[in-house]
Structure to design on (818 residues):
C-alpha cells in the first residue's frame, strides 16, 4: 500500500467537514455509560456498506441492506447494549421505528437513515429509552461530538477506537475519519464489530462501495477474533463532498489515494480491535508472502491466525512452528509444503524456524526471548509466487475462556 | 441408522478371525510406554483408507495413499511418539524403511503394508528404535494382542479406545472391531486421529472403500476437536473374508448391514475420542433436524459444535442459545432463521429456548440444572425439510488453554 501523502491527524470524526455527531446516555446499559450515537451529514451524502454474511442477520442489518441502496444518505443511528438480533417481527418493527424517529427529528427521508445495534442477543429493545435517546441525540449534535459518538457505540471495549487522516486530492484537501468498536477475543453476543468511516471527499456512490469492499477485504476480514461472524457486523462509509475536491468518477489517481487512506484508517481500526481483546496477551501479525495468488496468501494467513492451537501456543510463548504449517496445510491455500520457510520476529530479534518445509534445529533460548514480547510477527514464505497478505490476531488465553464462559448470565 | 442385529461385544480387535496383533515398547516415548503397534492379516485382505486432507501430509500418509491402491493388504505398522511430519526427504526415506522392514520380516510384498506415525512434528524418527521395534512386534504377534496394539497407538489419550460388534450376514457371522487414538480437545502436534477398523467379513475392495467413506462422513468428520486437521489423520479398514460369509459384491442387504456395523463401531470410537479430551468437562451432542439437505444438516451441526464461543458457553453452563443461532447462521447451511426451534436436554430434563427464531423467556434455574450435567444434547429444528445430522464435541475449558499453551517445550 502506498501511504505517501497521508497525514495521520488522530482526531477521529471531529474535523471532517459537514458532519455533526452525538454520543449520549439513554439508559440501555446498566452501567449508565453512553449507549447511543448519531452521525449526521449536514448535506446529502453517498453511503457504502459491508454487512455480516451471517444468515441470521439482526433487524437493523436487514434494514440497512435496503436503505443503503438509496442514492442519498444523511444519518446513522446506533445503539449499544442491545443487538436487536433474534427478536423476530417485533425486533424489525423496533428497528424501523428507530429509523423513522431519527428521520422525522432530523427532517430527512427515512430511506436516508441507516441503523446499527450492538449488545445482547434475543432481548427486545427498550423502546422508551430508545425514543427519548434519539430525541436527546438529535438535540446534542455538534461538529466536535465525534469522541462522544465513539464512546456511544462501545460494548465490552476497554477503550474507544478512532483515527483520521488528511490527504490532498485534486481541488482540495480531504479528511477520512473512522470510529469502531469490537474486542479482539470477541465477547459472546457482544461480538459485533462496527465501524463507521466518514469523509468529506467527493466520490461517486458506486466507487465508494468499491473502495469500502477492497478496504474491508484487506483489513477487517483479515483479523481473527475467534471465527464467529456476528449477526450485526457492519462497516458503513459516508462521503459528503464538502471538501471541494474534484468529484472522483473513475479509478484515477485520486481514487487510489482515497483508497489508500481508507485502508490505512481501517487497518488502524482493525488492529485496535485485535489489541483490545480482553484476555489477549499477545498481538500477532502473520504475513504470508510469495504466494501464487492473493487469495492463497489471504486464506493462508487467515487460517494461521485463526487456529486455536496456534493462538494457544503463542499464549504459552512456545515456538510451535508445526501448528503453523498444519494450519497452512488445511487452509486450502495452494503451496508446496517442501518450499516453505518460516521466521518469527519481535523487538527482541528474528529467528528462522523452518527451511524448505523442514524444522531447523533452532536456538530455543533465542526463540523464547523473541516470543516473550507482546508484539510478534510471523512470516511464512511460500516461494511459490509473488502475492502477499497480512492477517492480525491475538493469543488464546485463560481469560478468553473465563470471559466467554460466563457472559450471558 | 438401523442397528438391528448388531451385537456389541466390546472386545476390540481380539476375536476377529484371521488377524494377529502386537503392541510393544521400542523406546520412542520418554515415558517408556507402548509406542508401536502391528496389525497383521494371516491371509490376503482388502483395505480401504480415508486420510487427512491437509496439504501438509506426513510421510507415512503419502506412502499409504499409494499402497492403499494395491489389491491386497496384509499389515499396518504404527509408531506413536513421533509423527514423522515436516521431516522432508529423510522422513520419507524413514517411512519407506518402516514399510520395507515390516514387509521383509512378515514375508509379504512392501506394497501390502501400510504405515502410520503419530506424535511430535518436525523431528526425525529414531530409526534404531524403530527397526528393533518392528522385529520385536513381528515376533510378538498373537491373536489376542489387540489390546496391546490399542495401547501402542496412544499419545496423550488417557485411555485406550476399542470396540467390536458381531452381526449375521448370509453364510456366516462376522465381526467388526476397531481401535482408535485421539483426544477431544486435541493436543498440539499430537492432534492426530488414527483409527483401524478390521473385519473378517468378505467384501470387495471398492465397496469397503465406499463403506469407510460414508462411515467417516457420519462419524469422525462430525466430531469437533478444535478445527485443526492434522498432518497424519488416518482411518484404515481391512477385510480378510475369513468369516466365510457370501462375498459382498454389490449394495445388497448385507452391504447395508455391514455399513451399519462400521458406522456403529466408528461412532463409538469418535465419541470416545471426544470424551477423552483432557481439559474437557462436557460432552455435547448437537442434532440439526428437518434440514433441507443432509449437507445443510451436517455443516450446521458441525459449525455449532466447533464454535469456540458455543464451547466456552457450555463450559460456563450458560444457556447461550444466541451463539448457537449465530454459528448456524455463518455455517453456510440453508435455513430460514424465523423458523428455528431449539431445545437443550440432559438427564435432568429438557428445555425449549428458541421458538420460530425468537428467544423464549425460559426458566433460567431449570436451564442451569440441565446444563450442570456432563452430557448435554442440543436439538436445533430447522423446520425446512426432512434431513438430519448429529455432531459431537466438548466444551472449551481453562485446561484446554493450559495444555495447548505449553505442549511442545
Amino acid at each position: 500500500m502506498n501511504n505517501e501523502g497521508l497525514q495521520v491527524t488522530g482526531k477521529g470524526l471531529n474535523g471532517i467537514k459537514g458532519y455533526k455527531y452525538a454520543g449520549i446516555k439513554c439508559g440501555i446499559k446498566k452501567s449508565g455509560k453512553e449507549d447511543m450515537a448519531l452521525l449526521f451529514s449536514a448535506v446529502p451524502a453517498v453511503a457504502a456498506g459491508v454487512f455480516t454474511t451471517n444468515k441470521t442477520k439482526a433487524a437493523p442489518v436487514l434494514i440497512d441492506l435496503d436503505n443503503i441502496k438509496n442514492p442519498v444518505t444523511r444519518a446513522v443511528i446506533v445503539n449499544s447494549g442491545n443487538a436487536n438480533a433474534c427478536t423476530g417481527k417485533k425486533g424489525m418493527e423496533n428497528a424501523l421505528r428507530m429509523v423513522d424517529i431519527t428521520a422525522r427529528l432530523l427532517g430527512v427521508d427515512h430511506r436516508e437513515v441507516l441503523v446499527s445495534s450492538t449488545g445482547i442477543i434475543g432481548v427486545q429493545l427498550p423502546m422508551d429509552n430508545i425514543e427519548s435517546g434519539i430525541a436527546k441525540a438529535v438535540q446534542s449534535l455538534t461538529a466536535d461530538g465525534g469522541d462522544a459518538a465513539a464512546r456511544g457505540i462501545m460494548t465490552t471495549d476497554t477503550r474507544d477506537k478512532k483515527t483520521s487522516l488528511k490527504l490532498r486530492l485534486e481541488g482540495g484537501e480531504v479528511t477520512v475519519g473512522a470510529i469502531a468498536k469490537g474486542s479482539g477475543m470477541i465477547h459472546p453476543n457482544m461480538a459485533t464489530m462496527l465501524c463507521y468511516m466518514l469523509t468529506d471527499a467527493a466520490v461517486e456512490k458506486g466507487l465508494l462501495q468499491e473502495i469500502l469492499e477492497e478496504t474491508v477485504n484487506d483489513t477487517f476480514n483479515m483479523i481473527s477474533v475467534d471465527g464467529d461472524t456476528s449477526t450485526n457486523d457492519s462497516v458503513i462509509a459516508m462521503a459528503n463532498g464538502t471538501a471541494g475536491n474534484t468529484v472522483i468518477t473513475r479509478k484515477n489517481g485520486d481514487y487510489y489515494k482515497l483508497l489508500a487512506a481508507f485502508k490505512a484508517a481501517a487497518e488502524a481500526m482493525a488492529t485496535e480491535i485485535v489489541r483490545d481483546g480482553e484476555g489477549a496477551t499477545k498481538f500477532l501479525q502473520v504475513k504470508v508472502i510469495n504466494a501464487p495468488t492473493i487469495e492463497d496468501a489471504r486464506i493462508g494467513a487467515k487460517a494461521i491466525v485463526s487456529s486455536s492451537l496456534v493462538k494457544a501456543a503463542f499464549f504459552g510463548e512456545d515456538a510451535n512452528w508445526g501448528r503453523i504449517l498444519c494450519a497452512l496445510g488445511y487452509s486450502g491455500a495452494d503451496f508446496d509444503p517442501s518450499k516453505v520457510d518460516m521466521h518469527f520476529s519481535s523487538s527482541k530479534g528474528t529467528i528462522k524456524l523452518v527451511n524448505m518445509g523442514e524444522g531447523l534445529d533452532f536456538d530455543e533460548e533465542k526463540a523464547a526471548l523473541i516470543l516473550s514480547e507482546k508484539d510478534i510477527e510471523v512470516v511464512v514464505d511460500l516461494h511459490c509466487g509473488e502475492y502477499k497478505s497480512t492477517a492480525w490476531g491475538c493469543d488464546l488465553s485463560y481469560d478468553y475462556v473465563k470471559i466467554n464462559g460466563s457472559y450471558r448470565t
About this structure: Chain B touches chain A through 65 residues (CB under 8 Å). The CA atoms of residues 40 and 226 of chain B lie 33 Å apart. Chain B has a mean pLDDT of 92. The longest helix of chain B spans residues 253-275.
